[in-house]
Amino acid sequence: MQRVQTRNELGLGSQMGISSAIPQGMTGYMDSVNQNMAYSQAQQFNETEPVPGRTVPAEEQSAVYLHRNLPTFDDISEADLLQDLIYVLQGVDGTYIRWSARMSSYAVLPDIRISRPTRSMVALLSELGVLTRDIQNYISDVDREGRLFEQSFCTELKAEMSEYYKLVSEIEGRLFKTPRSLRPGESQMGVTLRRMYCWTTEARQKLRLMSVAITKVQEGSGGGDVLSIISTLVDDGDPFIRQFAKRLLKTTSAPFNNILISWITDGELVDPYKEFFIREREGRRDMFWTEKYTVASDMIPVHISGEMARKIFQIGRSLNFLRVACDDAQWVAEGGPRTQLASDISDTSNLETFVYRSSTMVNERLMSVLRDKFDLMGHIEAIRRYLLLEQGDFALALMEVLDNQMELSGRTVMAHDLSAALSSAIRSSNAQYEDSDRLTELALTFSEDSSKHRGWDDVALTYNLTAPLSYVIPRATMRQYFEVNRFLLRLKRVEHSLHTVWRQQMTESRSHLRSKELQRRKGEHQEGKADDPVRLAMRQSSIASSEMIQFFHQVQRYVALNVIEGAWGEFIESTRSGDIDIDQWNEAHSKYVGIIHDVVCGGSSAGFQRNLSGIFDTATQFITVVKELYSEHALQSRKDMSAPKENRESLADRLQRIRNAGSLFNTQQTPADPLAEHASRINAIISRFKDQVRDIVRTLSHNTTSDLQFLVVTVDFNGTYTSG
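^ that's the sequence the OP posted. Answer follows.
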């Protein structure tokens, strides 16, 4: 009770907590304290000095005298401590109070004896010196080599420290107006340790907040992370902390706002210290749109949402793309977002409104330029028609030219052969009426994994997009187009070659029927009721040709109608919206190409691809063997027709020779007769083809997730392969 009364007499109140000692304003607070001090002085003066007309009791006079003459245990006076503390408050060593590296704080010299309460009060006041020292060291480090956001952060720290130094100066002014020595119990308009503690309460809280902010900034990654750290203090429930953090955030965010304005109005990233949440990196020229700029997620301030950050990234990247790649700098300068810039984007609501409005404007402009000026959809349509072989007359003309070139040039193909083949196919089809800008992008090239001896099997169509479309569509997507075209070209070529063989078979069959009819009329066809094994093999090859043509036709029909056309329809529907941006368009386009690529080149249909590749090889072998068989048969027929009648081989001898050759083939020996050899090979190839088709049908039937499951219905519509 006595201690509480003493504190009240000193004007400090009954509590020493921070919240009870926070003043509304430093000057007003000191005035109120001074009024309490004046009242206390007057009261003490009345109590200690005789007043005319008032009789002082003897007990009171004895108590005052005893208090004045109580012995003290401090080696130095309070006035000397206060003078030292003025230096300590500024982070400078005093005469009796100095920095202790061991304790990392200021402390009274160990050889000076002071009472425990005084030492405790000195320690409390010395905390201000420790905080000031740490803050000044941080400011000095930033001034030497600090980055932009740290320098802005230090600007507010310096402003707060200036206010703090004004307080110290005012305390120092009051100190030197105080007499050098005071008798115990006397109280004048001077400075005491307790008064200094009360006057510096608000400053202590500010310095603590600055120290905490500095620590968190040093632990963070800088830039937007600094703003996020300070923003957490803005949401504090303490009004004092909240107001202090708002001032700190407003000053610190100035560089961020400057970089942001430059990015979302001009598409320029002015960030020398890499502190913005958007980063520029040097990459390949063809990755101008997709990889030139990236987002550093850990640098996005907390007051910017993920969706807003995505739109900010999109706005600046689009403006930069319009200015650099699309040669549309005039619109960016005169009609871009700068014309609608808000007066104060430091306010989150103003920034959000401006970003969403600018995003719509810039996206519409970019899509309009790409579609109208650079014919984006026209080129995608041309890729669909030529690379995906959706224009049938061009595909047919190309197959015929490739077959002719293969017969003329053989296995090895030169670059000029490719150019000549493509030009001939264009002139032979309606592709000749295509826009010249699109035809110049079309080319026949070799695959990258082809061998040194490049042949027609290594050839595929490519579409060489030029800037700025080549920056928008990734190379990986164009690579998928190339791989799909290789598959479709091989499928088309096999089907076209089978049609050629089938025509040759039909011609030979009709010729053979006419020959038999002629022999019958001449009476020369008297022997041989039995079937000729070579003729039987030719008949079986004709049936197998029709079967293979039907299989490849169904595969091609399914890929063209069910896969390509279906994916194309979804792509057109998803990009029809007027507010779609280039990233959303690119995502829809990549999905469209990815669906086709997964079906024909891998993905979930890997088993189908492996078996289909084997069928391609089987069909190619079949075509080669059938052509050799018919060539040998035609050569043999011409020899027989030119030989004298008595030297011609009888049908019985020929049948026996072929049977002997067949038995040799069954025992893995080389038959002597080429015709018999071809006939035996054809039978083996036909059997292998049917086994491979059964494997595909079985694979697709058991794979419920495959995109090609419906192909079973078209290939095995009558149960030929599943019933075997």
